[in-house]
């Protein structure tokens, strides 16, 4: 029973980590006033590039680095189109997602059916051997630990630093921030790059930790769910953790139920994460005052600096 509970908790953490990484990055992007719907495309590109590099070189560390850079590069393209060329953010984000899915499918077609040795879990003598909590607290993989460090760093940055205050000011009113002399475009570029790097790392986690193989479409709409998580969290980082683990639990229970042979149609189990997304958004929409209180006022609006 203890082993079953331990494995379930570890499975939930593994399932929740990609959501947490991608949603944390997108939260920073949206706090700067930019709506990036290209998270799914950045995740899938990070997933395929990290796997290709890790499989070809045998270096998991290099695979992680390349996956992060791939997501950041695609986000740089998005930033250039939306912040420099002033294209529509919604349309551009959708285009980035479609492009990312196509690029990943083409680049990874020769690697379907292959496997690698995944990034392993850490083992701390004595501590990791404690029943139940040992493996859950002291036996996770390095990226899972990093996801918690990242969320605390984002909380500290947004609410405890001058730079974080400026970023939130840009998201709330980019015209006023510009009038005060803050480089709105530069700040948004940096936020978008950060969000793309997080999305790339989330995709990397899927191939180098979660599954250890590559398959087309393996992000399975997690990027879209991460976007919903930001709204669910009301643009507050600590709520991202709650939302990520809520969706991670639902995703894990889907696989657990199938593995245990529970007589529930697989189609219904596969739809659970999406049904949960709809339920969460409906619940959030009922409290319009609280939602609007934290929503960046300039979210999705084009900023054109005075010449």
List keywords for this structure.
307 residues; mainly alpha; ABC transporter involved in vitamin B12 uptake, BtuC; 73% helix; globular
Commentary on this structure:
- This protein has a single domain (2-294), classed as ABC transporter involved in vitamin B12 uptake, BtuC (Orthogonal Bundle), CATH 1.10.3470.
- The protein contains 13 helices and no strands.
- The chain is mostly helical.
- It is globular and about 60 Å long.
- Helix 1 runs antiparallel to helix 9.
- It starts with a helix and ends in a 13-residue tail after the last helix.
N- to C-terminal distance: 67 Å
Going by CATH, the architecture would be Orthogonal Bundle
Strand content: under 5%
Give the overall average pLDDT.
89
Which runs of at least 5 residues are low in confidence (pLDDT < 50)? Answer: none
**What is the C-alpha radius of gyration, as a whole number of Å?**
20 Å
Give the secondary structure arrangement, pairings included.
Layout: H1 2-31, H2 39-57, H3 60-84, H4 89-107, H5 133-138, H6 142-160, H7 162-172, H8 174-179, H9 184-210, H10 222-232, H11 237-259, H12 266-285, H13 288-294
Helix pairs in contact: 1-6, 1-9, 1-10, 1-11, 2-3, 2-4, 2-9, 2-10, 3-4, 3-9, 6-7, 10-11, 10-12, 11-12
Question: Nutshell version of this structure?
Answer:
The protein has 307 residues and is mainly alpha-helical.
